[in-house]
Amino acid sequence: MSNIKRRDFLKISAGLAAGAAGGVPLLAEAQGQTWKPEKGAKLRVLRWKRFVQGDEDVWMKNTAEFAKRTGVEVRVDSESWEDVRPKAAVAANVGSGPDIILSTFDDANLYPEKLLDVTDLADYLGKKYGGWYDVCRQYLQPGGKRWIGLPLGCAGNAFVYRISQMKEAGFDSFPRDTAGFLKLCQALKAKNHPIGFALGNATGDGNTWTHWLVWSFGGKLVDEKNNVVVDSPQTLQALEYAKELYQTFVPGTLAWLDPNNNKAFLDDQISVTENGISIYYAAKNSQDPKIKAMAADIGHANLPIGPVGRPTELHLFFNQMIFKYTKYPNAAKEYLRFMMEKEQYEPWQQASIGYVTHPLKAYESNPIWTVDPKHTPYRDCMKIMLPNGYSGKLGYASAQCMADFIVVNMVAEAASGSKTPKEAAERAQKRAERYYKGLTRDFLSPLAGRGIG
Amino acid sequence: MHRLLDNRTALGLAFMLPAAALLLVFLTYPLGLGLWLGFTDARIGRAGHWVGMENFESLFDDSLARLSLFNTLFYTVVASVVKFGLGLWLALLLNRHLPFKAMIRAVVLLPFIVPTALSAIAFWWIYDAQFSVVSWLLVKMGLIDRYIDFLGEPWMARFSTIAANIWRGVPFVAICLLAGLQTIAPSLYEAAALDGATEWQKFRHVTLPLLTPIIAVVMTFSVLFTFTDFQLIYVLTRGGPLNATHLMATLSFQRAIPGGNLGEGAALATAMVPFLLAAILFSYFGLQRRAWQQGGGDK
User: Fold this and answer.
1) Please, what are the domains in chain B?
2) CA dist A120 → A123, A127, A292, B204 (Å)
3) Which residue of A345, A413, B10, B172 has the fewest C-beta atoms within 10 A of its own C-beta?
4) Nearest to B240 among A201, A267, A403 (CB)
5) Residues of chain B contacting A442 with CB distance shorter than 8 Å
């Protein structure tokens, strides 16, 4: 009852805000909508700390340009991406803090009622730039209703490999399916070029590749109705595969956290890993001639397709949330609009050599993706990714299962042989049920209505 | 007003008020809030409702929570026993007349002074599966032929994290016990020597009994610090491999903050309290209340 009331109120207030804003556009843009910043508006933005320097430089440059044009003072703070999540949650909890937070994954689905409705902004940008990729709606337009945040993109991952070592192992091109990939890894191992993927409690690298693996065989934590279905024949198949793949791993991956694979790859200890474009970036800009030379030998490939026959990737999704407590909702919207427009977004993407994959289809034509063919695989990350929590609804349970490393632990247990695939899947099933069953009573926000998938 | 100021009781209460307020605001309130949250289903961004023992029941069924309890007990017991042994030994050595005594004592404290997060990062490199300096050295010396997987194998990881904890904790135990040793009057040792006591007997019947009150205090603190350790594990393993090093504190954080389930995280933290109380009571009743310390005769 109270929810209906609140939602109605939202509609009314959003309508009022849009009406008030649309009336007097401050920035006389050639086309498109603008939001008039409130008088004396100041914004505080909290974002995840850059992975590549160019990102921060151009982000700040764009912000300065926004301040110059609108007179709105913007302060940008950044924190390591894993620290943004608790800070955002606290801001939501206490009702004060940064006006805008750039966060990750399903954060917005944890406190949708604390976030400003940005449907008008999302509609405007979507119309102007060829539409949003599906995954954006799954994350930020729960139930197909209002937009609770604005997608920023994702830090795309791809398989990063050594071209010369792949050729040495007898492969001319990188395999496109999981069966071929296993053969490649076995051949690489035989040539003493092990591969390495994080199997420790690595929030980014551990989660992304293990989810891909399980999904690629048709396994998944939950179905469309949030029933836990991970203990399935498909999952077992995936875990058997993981076991074989693990035989080709470098020692120590059970302890790997996010930075380990970058270090090992750049030190020539592994031939394949999963990562963002940052390894290539680091090699290309290295002062060490040996590492710089490695850049030419680095190849990128999208994650192979498994028996399900379609891509099943997970990437670090970035959202932009405006909190309802902000005193300057229009200034905040205008800031996000400005940053997402082509004139700002594309140079920003270029400066981070494509570390961030765009959420809007029109940006596929950004020359950054074709200027160096090695960038191209990262272009499609948003197009082909699935949300964490696939194929159920996003919310507390999906966030908790990922934060608790249930899929990572399951794959690690089975791969390392510490448990049989069956035992590992059963344990994951029990662990996931604790969240999905225990929380059904209250975690399903009325706004997170529609199934995803 | 005058009469009130003349009243010793009222005045005493008034003087205690600031301290009491500080304790209430900064200790009692957060502790109480933490305990209360453990009995609610609070999530980040949403106030909780009272759910009674539900969190605890659910944790009891959770294999990961049970594993973290085992890990925490193992970690605390092994690390504390070794820290006590090494600390006492170091204190006895430092209590002798050594050249550069003051300097050595200062140096010994270093591991304790370095911020844990920093020393943990140093250990992270030392234990790295690919870049460990220890493995590198041993390989160069021809003693091993492949790098040691310090953090990649469950039991190995448990002992590696315990070793890092010991390295950090020994100075605290040693310096405190050294302070205790220095309060023991030399005349007691002289008297014992006159009675023909051996070194062992002097230690057993003079040093140890007089040191027990300090030992009780130091080891209580040491156990509390170890039981609630967080930083070291968070930097080194995040609880991996296969959750073999997840302590209750790290799991509590993982559930409460990245996982967003404040209630369950608080419940896990609350579940640590009985163990901590038991440690305190043990040291209080077991070590401190000897009859002779209360002025009674030795039995």
Assistant:
1) 1-38 (no CATH), 54-289 (1.10.3720.10)
2) 5, 11, 46, 80
3) B10
4) A201
5) 41
Using a CB–CB cutoff of 8 Å, tell me whether A93 touches chain B: yes
CATH code (residue A104): 3.40.190.10
Residues A355 and A401 in one domain: no
Model pTM score: 0.86
Question: Using 50, 70 and 90 to split pLDDT, how confident is the model at A190?
Answer: very high
SS3 B252: helix
Task: Please report, for chain B, how many H helices and E strands are present, in that order.
Answer: 16, 0
Q: Per-block average pLDDT, block size 10, for chain B (299 residues)? A: 77 90 93 93 80 90 93 96 95 88 86 89 91 91 89 94 95 93 91 92 90 89 93 91 95 89 92 91 72 52
A213 within 8 A of A157, measured Cβ to Cβ: no
Is-contact A279 A298, C-beta < 8 A?
A: yes
Does some domain include residue A104? yes
ipTM value: 0.84
Give the residue from chain A lying closest to B239, CA to CA: A201
**Nearest CB partner across the interface for B238, out of A86, A114, A200:** A200
Number of domains in chain A: 2
Question: Is 60 exceeded by the pLDDT of residue A22?
Answer: no
Query: β-strand A100-104 against A42-48: which pairing, if any?
Result: parallel
A401 with A268, same domain: the answer is yes
Residue A378 lies in a domain: no
